[in-house]
Every structure is written in structure tokens, then in C-alpha cells.
Amino acid sequence: MRIAILEQIAVKDDCIQKELVEVMGLAPTTVLSHLQALKKAGLLKGSVSSGSKLCYCIDWQTLNDFKINLGNLHEKITLHHTKVFENKGKCM
Question: What's the pTM?
């Protein structure tokens, strides 16, 4: 669900929580919970505009760093898995 929310935000390069509720078809509290988790992870920047509108945009630098780190993790795991597979055989 959080990936879908990031995709929706990327389409506009910003969002207002109310718009996400309508597009995603989720309860406002559910959307807010996901937005808060994404912001806590550093993937979103957020601000309050006029009134009580909560606006968010993607932190592209953090998202890029995440992509690089995930790629590095994938390499390490794949390398380790290959060595284990060669030495011990298939996983049971």
C-alpha cells in the first residue's frame, strides 16, 4: 500500500492527504498512518499549508539512497546465497 501511495505522490510531485484518501479509497486514518510511516522512514517531506491541509512530497535523495542501499543488500545476499548453495546444496 505504501508503494502505491508513493506512486500517487510521484504523479503530482506533491499531494494533499484528502486527495490520497479519495484516490486510494482508504479511510483518512489509514492514509495518515501510512504517510506518517513513510515520513518517519525519510521517504517523504511534509508540511502544513493553509488551514489543516497536510501536504507531502517525495524526498528524492532519500529514495535514491534507499535504492542504492537495497541494491547493495541484494548483491550481498545473492553472493552469500550462491556460496551457501555451492557448498551445501539446496535449501530444504
Answer: 0.72
